[in-house]
Amino acid sequence: MDMWPAYFLAFRKTYLNTADKIIFDRFYIIQHIEEALNKVRRQEHKMLMAEVHEIFQDSRYLWLYAEDSLSDFQRPRLDEFMKTGKT
User: Which residue in 1, 5, 78, 87 has the fewest CB atoms around it within 10 Å?
Assistant: First the structure.
């Protein structure tokens, strides 16, 4: 089912005592997860930029790549970020 509150409320009114049996469409679940991850990523990025802004400049997409698909240029840059975070 769609996660829109109107659908949920209509379902509950129509089928009493079955709210615990609802299955939401995975598209909407993934959408909520991605929104939460982006919110955390933005908060982390803002915090890091306040501490060491020049190192993390323009690094958003680098963090989103799978490690095995990084180019020869991107790999050392990500390694540098990882070292910075561990110190």
Answer: 87
Q: How far apart are CA 33 and CA 31, in angstroms?
A: 5
Q: CA angle at residue 75 from 57 to 43, to 5 degrees?
A: 35
**Predicted TM-score of the model (pTM):** 0.48
Kind and range of the H or E element at 7? helix 5-14
Helix, strand, coil: what percent of the chain each, to 5? Answer: 70, 0, 30
21-46: string of b/e by CB count within 10 Å (b at 16+)?
A: eeeeeeeeeeeeeeeeeeeeeeeeee
- Asked whether 22 and 11 are in contact (CB, 8 A), the reply is yes
Write the pLDDT tens digit of every residue in 53-84: 666 666 777 777 777 888 888 888 778 777 76
